[in-house]
Specification:
This protein has 384 residues and is of the alpha/beta class. The chain has a domain of 208 residues: Alpha-Beta Barrel (TIM Barrel). It has 14 helices and 13 strands. The strands form 2 sheets. An 8-stranded parallel β-barrel has the order 1-2-3-4-7-8-9-13, surrounded by 8 helices. Strands 5-6 form a two-stranded antiparallel ribbon. Strand 10 and strand 11 form a beta hairpin. The chain is globular, with a radius of gyration of 21 Å. The protein starts with a strand and ends with a helix. 43% of the residues are buried.
Length: 384
């Protein structure tokens, strides 16, 4: 069974390691104008931009065996659609997973944008559909819709995108979208429809995913919880006469030995300030079920990085190091590959991997870990 591996493209800038806090690669760090303009030894720009750095990461991942990359979308990033178009000119086969929240785009415009990108890149665009976690973060985008309404809107959005993609005339009357005799013109309507990776852990999310998603995407969770979640989404999809694959998004720290990997984590944890630790242990806003499931795996007290080890090679403090998801995999190259293989046995068909710094780690993970995942998986199948 072929397993797809995607890498993460840090569109918000990044530090040089998990131990550092100030990002100096890329230029998303307000107040650090001296870093933003750094370049020549005597001062002044040298012509190497943040896009050049992102292009290096995309090329490194492409060379190292990744099928494509996730282009993150947050208030402190550039627009993924624009970044994908730019990086497509810097790569040959690299696929671009574009995350977006459907409520912020007209579905007909989204279909036209995507088909144009597909036509220009030879079909290298994918969707990562995010419905949003509610709370202040959702209001930043100007979206006050309730949790279940957001998923109803997502379902309608994808109904319309699929409908107009066929060329029309397509009409639709929903709660959030109304379309009359719409449809993409040739040759846009002839492009391959992008694969859809769909995130969300609530029943409303699983219902929407079962109708439209090619891949159900989840953060790493305790393995038995993932087994249950995968079973639920397969069951809901089967009721509609469809099949769905599953994908896991996970950060990793992989080194030649387990001791080296945990030492990297320890140094990163030791550099975390007290305020960040208090925020980590406190309550979070929003109504995201997935985020709540992540919070449920936190300890009540935190004195050492070891307090966050929840299972062999699983550490639940990654969002202390860079934000985002909490749980990730730490270990030797072989151990990380074995944990990924276990996830394959649970039902994972694809992975979005990440590690800091993304440039060097793309080579490390692609050259040292990915071949072991495939080899170990083949050995398991032969043994079975």
């Amino acid at each position: 069974m072929a397993i797809d591996f995607f890498w993460r493209i840090p569109t918000h800038g990044e530090p040089s390691s998990h131990r550092a806090r100030t990002p100096f690669r890329g230029d998303w760090f307000p107040g650090n104008d001296n870093l933003r303009q750094a370049g020549l030894g005597g001062g002044g720009a040298d012509g190497f931009t943040y896009i050049d750095y992102l292009a290096e990461i995309a090329r490194a991942a492409e060379l190292s065996g990744f099928q494509g990359g996730l282009i993150p979308s947050f208030p402190m990033t550039d627009e993924p659609w624009a970044i994908s178009a730019l990086l497509a000119r810097e790569t040959s086969t690299f696929r671009f997973m574009i995350p977006f929240q459907p409520g912020f785009l007209n579905p007909v415009v989204a279909a036209r944008m995507t088909a144009s990108l597909q036509r220009a890149t030879g079909g290298r665009a994918l969707y990562n559909v995010i419905t949003g976690g509610g709370g202040p973060a959702q209001l930043w985008w100007g979206d006050s819709a309730g949790h279940d309404d957001r998923y109803t809107r997502t379902t309608e959005f994808l109904d319309v995108v699929r409908g107009v993609w066929r060329g029309g005339p397509f009409s639709y009357q929903g709660k959030f979208y109304q379309v009359e005799d719409a449809g993409l013109a040739t040759p846009l309507s002839e492009q391959d429809f992008p694969e859809i990776y769909f995130s969300g852990s609530s029943d409303a999310a699983l219902g929407s995913a079962s109708k439209h998603a090619d891949y159900y995407l989840t953060w790493l969770e305790p393995f038995e919880q993932l087994r249950e979640k995968f079973a639920r989404v397969h069951e809901k999809t089967a009721l509609l006469g469809r099949k769905i694959k599953c994908a896991v998004r996970v950060d990793i720290v992989a080194r030649a030995t387990e001791e080296e990997a945990w030492d990297e984590v320890r140094k990163g944890f030791d550099a975390v300030d007290a305020a960040t630790l208090r925020q980590f242990l406190g309550a979070d806003g929003g109504d995201s079920v997935g985020a709540a499931r992540q919070r449920g795996n936190r300890p009540t007290t935190l004195n050492s990085y070891k307090d966050l080890i929840t299972a062999p090679n699983i550490w639940s403090g990654f969002n202390l190091l860079r934000g985002g998801q909490t749980q990730g995999i730490v270990g030797s190259y072989q151990q990380v590959a074995e944990r990924l293989d276990e996830l394959v046995q649970l039902g994972a068909d694809a992975f979005i991997l990440a590690s800091t710094p993304h440039l060097e780690e793309a080579y490390r993970v692609g050259e040292e870990v990915l071949p072991l995942v495939r080899g170990h998986g083949a050995a398991l199948l032969r043994a079975a």
